[in-house]
Every structure is written in C-alpha cells, then in structure tokens.
Write a structure and sequence with these properties.
128 residues; alpha/beta; 4 helices
Length: 128
C-alpha cells in the first residue's frame, strides 16, 4: 500500500487560513454586504501581517487603556488602539481603518473587543 490507512484526508490549515474560512462563513451567514467580504479578503491577502499570534482582546478608543492594562496584568495578549497613539490608529484614515480591520480579524475565537467612543461624539452639541 503506498499510503498508510490512517493518512489524513485534509491538509492542515494555518491560523490565517482557519480565520479566513471562519470569517467568510460568518459573514455569508449574516448576509453581510459583498463589500465587507471583499475588504476582509483584501486584508487577509496583505503581505507582512503577523497572523501567527492571535490576540485575546482588542480595545478601540482606548484612552488610558484601562481594559487592556487589566488584560496585560492577567498575561493575555491585548491591543489598545486610540488616535493619540499615532496616525496609523486613526480609523477614519485608510491605513487606520485597515489596521483596525486586521486587528478584529486577528482576534482569537472567544476573544473580546471593547469599543468605547467618547460619549460627546453622539450628542447634537458636537455637530457644530
């Protein structure tokens, strides 16, 4: 017999490949807009992104990083994103938005994401 009987029938997937399959399946199940599927696909295809270390927690609009500091104290991986940490974290810019999408896609299954925009963003006095 050229192959052992217990030879695997599937090729093991890398973390990145598993994430891509899960994300695509989830987005399709939710009937997400095709543009979101395309965006995620483009982020997965970017070279030089670190996919081998998924994160346990993502904190957006981190401010003083209260949530992330708690995660770090518990020895869990956490990413804190806030405009004050640099232009690459400005989610209104192309680079910052792609960075945020990458961080969301790199969350470990069962991980948490905390997004706490400044409350004044949503009141009518901020419009003017």
């Amino acid at each position: 017999m050229p192959f052992p009987a217990e030879a695997p029938t599937t090729i093991p997937l890398s973390w990145k490949q598993k994430q891509r399959v899960c994300v695509n399946a989830g987005l399709r199940c939710m009937n997400a807009p095709m543009v979101l599927l395309s965006l995620c696909s483009m982020v997965f295809s970017l070279p030089h992104l670190k996919w081998d270390e998924p994160i346990d927690h993502l904190e957006l609009f981190a401010g003083v990083c209260s949530i992330s500091r708690g995660e770090w104290e518990e020895r869990r991986s956490a990413i804190a994103m806030d405009l004050k940490f640099g232009a690459e974290q400005d989610i209104l810019s192309n680079v910052g938005f792609c960075n945020m999408v990458y961080q969301v896609l790199n969350l470990r299954p069962g991980a948490a994401m905390w997004a706490a925009p400044v409350c004044s963003t949503w009141i009518y006095l901020s419009l003017g």
